[in-house]
Amino acid sequence: GERVAPLSVVGLLVGFGGAASFDPRARKVAAAPAQLLKKAGVNFAVLGKEETCTGDPARRIGDEFLFQERAQANVETLGRRKVKKIVTPCPHCHNTLKNEYPQFGGQYEVQHHSALLAELIEAGRLTNAADGSKDPITLHDPCHLAPVNCEVAATRAVGGAAPHGPFRETARRGTQTVLCAAARDPERVAQPPAARGPLSRP
Length: 202
Known about the structure:
- The protein is built from 9 helices and 5 strands, in the order αβαααβαβαβαβαα.
């Protein structure tokens, strides 16, 4: 593939998330932010074969030992590469790196890719103008992005919610979106978003 600058020079790491390693559809989703960053002239680096799972799935199913093993190994890798800022399209990776890795010494500036893309759109380096398609767009707010981390504006800015259309909102949206954890943690769902804190246990 196309080579990117060394991380020590660029300072921005793009993490693609584990699903892209085995799901062909997820590969397209993971590649899209990288293509847009290149279009906007943003220099970034990737870990390539050194990128491994953050351990989020292990923690969610209760395997705390495996999660901590993965977290410690990743913190060592990121430290060796002198990573300061990470952008990822995966809401789960975003939440884990931002809220859970600090307890293992992993202190990074972590952005969901939508936040960085929204900044680039505002700066005029990208556009969210409609492509002429009449197909409706319905946005689902991931639970680890909206209710857990209260990030809702960037995804709408990137999607062109206004003034472009057609754009549709679901009945439960934003910080009130239906959580994937709802079946196992109804008490958490009932809490105000600001009181929920990081989703650190299954």
